[in-house]
Amino acid sequence: MSRTRTTPHLPGLAALLLLPLIGTAQDVHFSQFFDAPLVLNPAMAGDIEDDQRAALFHRTQWQSTGSPFRTYAMSYDVPLFRSRMHGRYLGVGVHGFSDRAGSTRFGDTQGNLSLAYALRSGERTLIALGLVGGYGQRSAVLNGMRWDSQYNGAGHDPSLESGETVASSTSAFLDLGAGLLCRGETRAGLQWSSGLAVMHLNQPGISLFGSSEDRLLRRYTAHAELRIAGDRWTWMPKLYVSQQGAAREVIFGTLMHRRIGQDSRYTTDKTSSAFHLGLFYRWNDAVVPMLRFEHRRKLAIGLSYDINVSPLRSSTHLRGGMEISLQWVGAFSDQRRVLPKGKVH
Q1: What is the pLDDT of residues 2-47, one digit of tens each?
Q2: 126: CB partners within 8 A, 6+ apart
Q3: How many CB atoms are closer than 10 A to CB 252?
C-alpha cells in the first residue's frame, strides 16, 4: 500500500498528529497489487483457472513514527457456471479492508461485493465487465490529540483545556465502481492482460464533520501484464497506473519465477511449486523488492518491502513499509483423471 501525499511544512509533532488526516480521500493501495485483484478491478472477480480463490493481506507502513499505518484486507471470489457457459462465466467476489493510522487512530473500513460477466471474443481472447458496490465507514478519535495550550512548560498536561472543539467522529457511505478486463494469448504462446476501472463513481461524502464538500474522489486505474515463458524462467512484466484527484501512482516492474518439480504428463493434476523474485518501482516514491513462494500451485506466500526514496524520507524519517500476502487457489472437487489399468496419478 502506498500513501503519497502533498503535505505543507509542519513542526515534527504536528506533522505526526495530522498526517493521517491529510489527504484522507486517497484510497488504500498495495505494492503487491496483482495479488489483490478485487481491489484493483471488479472485472477480475472469478478470473482464475480453478474454482475459488481466497487471499489475506497485512501491511505496516511508517513504523518509525510510533503510530504506524496498519492495513488488513481479505478477499474471496469464484467463477460460476463456467462449464455450462462453455468458457464464459459469472464472477462473484467479496473483499474488505480495515486501515488504522496514526495518533488519531484514523480508521477506514469497507466491505464490497463484485460481480463480473466474462465472454469469449474469438478462440484466444476473453473480455469481462465488472461492477462493485460496497459500504464504508471512516472514523477518528480526535479528543485525545495534544495541543500547544496543554503544555505547561515542563511537559504535556492533559488536564489543561485545549481550546479546541473536537470530538470522536464517524461517517458512513455507499460506494460504487465498474471495470473492464481483457486477456488473451498469441499464437506464439505469449499471454497478456489489461484492464481499466473507475472506482467511487458516485463520489460519496466522507466528511467526519458533516460537510458536503469532503467527497471520495473518483479513482481511475489502468493495469497491464505479460507472461513470457522461457526454458527455465517465466517473466511477468506488470504495470499499474492510478489517478485520484491530484494524487497519481505509477508502479512498474517484473516478477520472474521458476518451477520446482514436475506437473503430471498423464493427468490434469498440476502439483509443481514455484519460487518468485521481483523488483518494482513506484514512481518518485519507492523501490519495492519482492519474494514469493507458491506451493503446489495452490498456496502462495508473498513478502515485499517499500524502500522509500522520496523527499519524505529525509524530512520525516519515514522509511517505508512491509507487506505480507497469503493466497490460496483451489478446486471444489478432485480434478484428476484415472489412468489406464485403474491407476490414479
Answers
A1: 444 333 333 333 333 444 443 444 677 789 999 999 999 999 999 9
A2: 87, 118, 119, 120, 181, 182, 183, 184
A3: 14
Q: What residue spans define the domains of the chain?
A: 12-151+165-342
DSSP string, 87-114: T-EEEEEEEEEEEEETTTTEEEEEEEEE
Contact indicator for 118, 41 with CB cutoff of 8 Å: no
Alpha-carbon dihedral 222, 203, 143, 59, rounded to 10 degrees: -20
Give me the architecture of the 12-151+165-342 domain, per CATH: Beta Barrel (2.40)
- Each residue's pLDDT tens digit, 40-61: 999 999 999 889 999 999 998 7
Q: What gap in Å lies between CA 126 and CA 207, rounded to an integer?
A: 40
Element (H, E) at 239: strand 234-244
Distance in Å from the first CA to the final CA of the chain? 42
Q: How many contiguous H segments (helices) and E segments (strands) does the chain have?
A: 3, 14
C-beta of residue 76 within 8 angstroms of C-beta of residue 62? no
Other residues' Cβ atoms within 10 Å of the Cβ of residue 235 = 13
Residue range 299-329, pLDDT digits in tens: 999 999 999 887 765 544 556 789 999 999 9
